[in-house]
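User: I'm putting together a teaching handout on how multi-component assemblies are represented. Below are the sequence lines for each component of a complex, exactly as they appear in our records. Could you produce the 3D structure of the whole assembly as structure tokens, so the students can see both representations side by side? Please keep the chain order the same as the input.
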Amino acid sequence: MWVEGGDIHDELLDQLGGVLAPPEDLALDPTAAELDALAAAVAARWPDGAAGPSAAAAADAPGASPAPPESPIRPFRSGGRRHLRRLGSGAWRAGSVAAGLVLVSASAAAAANGGVPLPRPVRVVAYSVGLPVDSPALDDTNQHIKVLKDAVKAQDKPKAEATVRRLQTDLTKVPADEQKEAVPKVEAAIAVAADKGMIQSPAPTTATTMPPAPPTTATTEPAPSTTATTAEEKQKEKEKPAATTTTTEKTKSTEPEPTTTTTSPEGSGNPSGSSGDGGSIGTDPSATTTTTAPPDTTTTTSPPPEETTTTTTAPESTTTTTEPAPQPQSEPASVQANRRNLMAQR
Amino acid sequence: MDQGQGAGNLVERARQGDQEAWAALYTSVYARLVAFAHRRLGNADLARDAVSETMARAVTKIDAYVGEDEGFAPWLFGICRHVVVDIQRQTYRPLPPGLLRSDVDDPGPAEIVLDSEEQAQVRAAFARLDPDERELLELRVVGGLSSAEVAAALGKQPGTIRMAQMRALGRLRTFLEEASRVG
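Assistant: Of course. Below is the structure of the complete assembly, with chains in the same order as your input.
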């Protein structure tokens, strides 16, 4: 097709306009709904209505129609709802956390006051975050005291002996501030068991080692508690002739922490190493118990005592430390110290 | 732009949130915007939605517009182009291969029957242009924009648009010649 004469491009454009023209039924004017939507968008964009001198002048100009009333149609570009949603989300999140803390604190406080017994995981968490609850070790001790009493009532001698050993293990894990509460209870329970003939003689209940302090205070004052407890132990050991205790003070002046090595003849020195879960409770009276050495301390092992009164069921010598996992005695002190530091950091 | 509404004043009033100014601007450019959107989308309802969305975006972005009433329509067309692309993305549905058309501007059977032979040739030739060339000519013909306004809408220099338009029309003419020889 040739386009002759004039501006061929203009003629082509005209021809193209005829081909590309919109259908005749296509609306050429906005509908009322579309105008309302525009008005709503404008109202949302300028909530206070027309502002500024020019708008005011236009509104006051003769012939100018008054501004249309705000459309009931909700503006679809409004960001208010989005802000509200974001604000609500944050508020809900904070509220949920606060409610959770209140709930945990209330339940922990109730448990601490003797109301409801806490499950062990809850107790561990509550104690770790510093809530006023008994330590898991003290809770274990209390439970084992009940078990011992039940065994005494049932005249179950093996169970009573095993429970006594477990109690002695528990005591080694009870924090220093709770040992004042735990030791008399354990001693009383063991004395009752001994009176009933369930065990041969009351075993010493002196805790030979200090368990790791609670996480909230472990990093702040680990050394004083150990030292103080060692002094207490020495005082108690002197009062108890049945137990033979050898305590070694710190070896050098450069070593800040004292090391306590205790050998007890009557089962006191054979903790199972577990948290009272009925693990290895075989006792070798001649076994020695090595306490966990603080950093830069030397752990020594005292010779086995001559007096042994507890019947053993496990032939091998069971050596356990206060760490969760039993450590061989050949493990360097630095490794033990690092492990202890890691535990303290938790 | 309707000069009777007060040229050089409508946009300024619109910047202040004047509802009447916005309505006047909307009405003045509505028909061309709808035609352009319909041309790109092929659907009247989608075209109207595109124009509404274009105006909504214009209300939101009016502070970013620098110019007077003369440049407002090209600015709106520039927004409308993006809105059309967004709608095309949202409404895209893959069709079976047998139903796929090679190009949205290819004439359908009904269009071929209804069109005159000459219009059919122009439509077929137009469909052979590049997409950019087609959009340029649609803004020019359907949108009724001048070369300078098309340049403003596309964000290019007017001279560049004039040269691109000449090339597009030249190719269109070539295609028409080829069609007439074959016919």
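A couple of points students might notice: The domain at 1-93 of chain B is CATH 1.10.1740.10 (Rna Polymerase Sigma Factor; Chain: A). Chain B touches chain A through 51 residues (CB under 8 Å).
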